[in-house]
Amino acid sequence: MSASDEGNAAAAGYAPHPYVGGRTAVLRALSAWRMRWPGAPRVIVLTGNPGSGRSRLLTGFLMMCDPGYRKQLPLDDLDPATVPPDLPAPAVPSPAGRTAAQLLWLISDHFGLNADHTDDIFTELATREEPVTLVVPDVDQAGPVRAANEPARVVQDVLKPLAATETVQLLADVPRELAAELAGALPRGQVQVIDLDEAEWADPKGLVLHAETALTPESGAPELPYTTDPSTRRALAEAIAARADGNRLTVQLAVQSLLTQPEGFDPADASLLPGTVGEALDLHARRLGADPQTLRLLLAPLAFAEGEGLPVQLWGALANAVAGRDMSQDLADGMLLAAPFIQPVEASPDEDENDEVGAADGDEASDDSGTGADAGRTLLRLMHPGLAEEIRSALPDTRDAQTRIAMALLEAVPQQDWSKADPYIRDHLAAHTLDAGLLPQLLTDPGLFAHADPVTMRAAIEAVPLEQLGAPARTYLRTAPLLTRSQAPADLRAAFLESAFVEDGLAPYAEALHTLGFTLPWRTLWSVPLVGVRAVTTGSLPPQGGDGATAAQVPDGTTAQVPDGATPGSARPGGPVPASGTTAPRPVAAFIVPEGTPGSRTVPRPDGDDSEGDGRALLLHDLLRPEYVDADPAQVQLPSEQAQAAAPFGLSRGADYLRVWARADREVVAALLSDTPFTGADLSPDGVLVVATARGVTARQILATPRPATPTVPAQRTGTADSDASDGLEGDHS
After folding, report:
1. Other C-beta atoms within 10 Å of 231: how many?
2. What pLDDT digit, counting tens, does each position of 227-260 carry?
3. CB within 8 A of 666, min separation 6: which ones?
4. Of the candidates 301, 303, 304, which has an alpha carbon nearest to the alpha carbon of residue 330?
5. Helix/strand/coil for 590
6. Residue 201: which residues within 8 A CB-CB, separation 6 or more?
7. Which of 554, 547, 546 is nearest to 527 (CA)?
8. Which H helix or E strand runs over 573?
9. pTM for this structure?
10. Phi, psi angles (nearest 5°) of residue 201
11. Residue 550 — pLDDT band, cuts 50, 70, 90?
């Protein structure tokens, strides 16, 4: 195949593709791939320079692959070799804005695979009887954070394993710097690289047609001598295409520039036609009597914008920051100057404000590519990623520009209150500081952790070497899979982080979250890193008058954590605050632990049981304070049936979640997910939730103000069968 195919197709009387306008050679190759023609490769890697037209080409090809859309196309008029067979539409998972893991789960969901882990996806695909067809477009737009280099991760973790799977027929659009890596992983004959900038795949006539079509009044062009007269229009289109050297983006920018501001344009003057994307910017500015550098500075904030685009309210402040001077007048006067290069876009609907906590399997099962906090307002972005790349690359110091942008965004947060910050700032400040090399310094604010979109925040933090992260950032990073998986709103994200900070010995960060206006469902009282806990229950020790139970050291020699400034039991008004040595019963939690755990007391075996191994022991811990209790477990009294019946809350337990609900109206007041399996859980009558996982044991005081419950059935243990705290202090022996 060669570019001469274009002329052959025209000579044969075939019409060009109505959307692509040419590319006969490439469309023939793609059609042969789709029909699995003998000798056709199983994998095609489509690449080219930014603006070469890869996305448009793939869109046009997929139109012919969709059974419904192809009915709207004049297929009988097209070259038959460019028309793929009428087959079910291929899967087209979009990487745009998604991480590699999210892309894999998207593929898994599409094919209905029974995969628990990402590696299982490739195994499941390999065992399918029928081959599957995948088209992966726009790999260069992968990832929620541009500086995190997610396209490389998509190639390494997704495309290379897919390409190596014999049952997968793959077509992927990847940047040139990654094309050789993907193609090099396969033997010759199985893969073909189509580089749209190589002479073999060039389409000069299609490029002329692209320019000519854009210049017609039918396409929205104003009525001008070079748009209404066919011969003049054709000559101008040929001149534009010749100067653009095969780059469709350059052609598009040239046409939009002269149509937006036709004054001063002479179609006979070739010096007014750009040869590159950068020249398109500079020539447009000069034709309007402006400094090209001013235009580039105005567009720079949009070139660095993350997500779907930049809120117009932030444009001026960021332009000032990048330029290092007041750009307000330039911005006011420059709307016509910047217009050909800007695209307004309405933000996607918010997909993440869910009150219910999900329970999807896998730490990236959620296909949420952002919180969508900007939903409902207009954002601005540059019309093509290649234009943004040109503007960034021309700046003398991109890191300095990002530093200025990050500082301006930070200064725009009212009183440093993240609840009042613009949603764009909350969600994307981490991405800007990552590109500026400043992210580790930002990762000390628990309010930002809770308010920021967890998908983008996680992606940004994961791009930083672990040794450069402080303790709060490492805590966030281990909690992030739970935050993204649950799609929790900000209040619940704050609650998950509050417990994680206590678990990691960062009590001041946990306490700070209680002062930042969040409605938290609990206060974490303490957490101990105790391994091997099989069950937990709550109870109390009888009054000892100061001579009985005493505080004990933590078995591993450390001290459990309690939030600074928090009085034990003070989280909920009216909660019990007994102290050792008083005459009131002392609330405790009892843990079933492996025999030999320091500080524990062995559970006596039933008479006649001489078996070895599987020994159990009991370890007591104060329910409200971070200290173990040295007391005889036989003295522990379980809550009475009357106390349980009068308790304001009930507990329900699933495989990986716990729910605390109010008895009065059955409303869920707290929902807890865990990234490790629950091994035990109990809820005291006073609303202290004690939970054991493989990581340890944590106690949380439920903060909801309960209404009194009115029991109408005989008093029983709280919760359902799966939430039994334990069967007595020795647990369930069944």
Report:
1. 8
2. 999 999 999 999 999 999 999 999 999 999 999 8
3. none
4. 301
5. strand
6. 3, 23, 25, 26, 194, 195
7. 554
8. none
9. 0.84
10. -110, 10
11. low
